[in-house]
UniProtKB/TrEMBL annotation:
This is UBR-type domain-containing protein. It comes from Marasmius oreades. Residues 21-56, 111-161 are annotated as: Disordered. Residues 111-131 have a biased composition (Polar residues). It comes from the Eukaryota. GO terms for molecular function: ubiquitin protein ligase activity; zinc ion binding. Residues 141-158 have a biased composition (Low complexity).
Amino acid sequence: MIQCLACEDWFHESCCNLRDRPAPREQTPEENDQYQVNENENETRSEASSSGLPPPLLEASDYDAFICGSCVSKNSVLQRYAGSAGCLIVTRDSSSSPWKLYPEKDAVDNLSRSENTNCSQKRRSSPTGFSERNAKRQRVSPSSSSSSSEPCLAPSSSHQSDKIYTGIRDSEHLATLGTGDIFLTEGFRDRWCQCSTCLPLLKANRYLLEEEDTYEPPSDPDSGLSLEELGMRALSRLPRDRAIDGIHAFNAMREDLVQFLRPFAQDGKVVSDSDVKTFFETLMERHRGQNT
């Protein structure tokens, strides 16, 4: 399953259209009819069970983060990036067409290189031919002019993604072209546009700019020890007389349990919860009688 980076809900790969939904399992035949199932049907079922699920359109190692379509539809910046290099979506041309990645895997590298080239050209370009009056205005308020003249480097929303999110917003239109989920490749936090329009929307969702710390529980030095080793360690910490009494009590309980379970094994009966509770209740009553 895949977890959304924004709402932290979990999704099946089939719900994200990454793979076909597996067919429902066939009902097990009745006990009276199970011997009437022919060998061909048994072979077919065994082949279906061993074939496994179909391969997904996108492996987990091919992307770094996932954001569901519901969260993307609430953020205009994410909608602009959907379907661009490093921000993949799963879509199709029509309701009868197969699902595909957009952009395709082979085109992602080319789109990424062209996008980086365009971004660097925009950063290097600077307006020329300012009048002396504009130059003086820049010297008076450099911060305001620099922020207003900073170009937006976010890509324009693709026609395919527009159709997907329009279908999601339209209650009468089924989202047949895709769910609007996006799959972000590695380094996506470095590719966001930092202009005055996009940055506030990104800061409102800090997970888009900063990676959240993953909680890791402290290492347990006893995790590699067996129950026997842990038990021996606990006994070694007890006084000698109490440790000996504990070993005798454990051996006595084990013998009583073996005697109690032997009739069940001989008769082939199943031990139920009530049988186990009865055994320990009897053991506790006998222990209380010995102490009084």
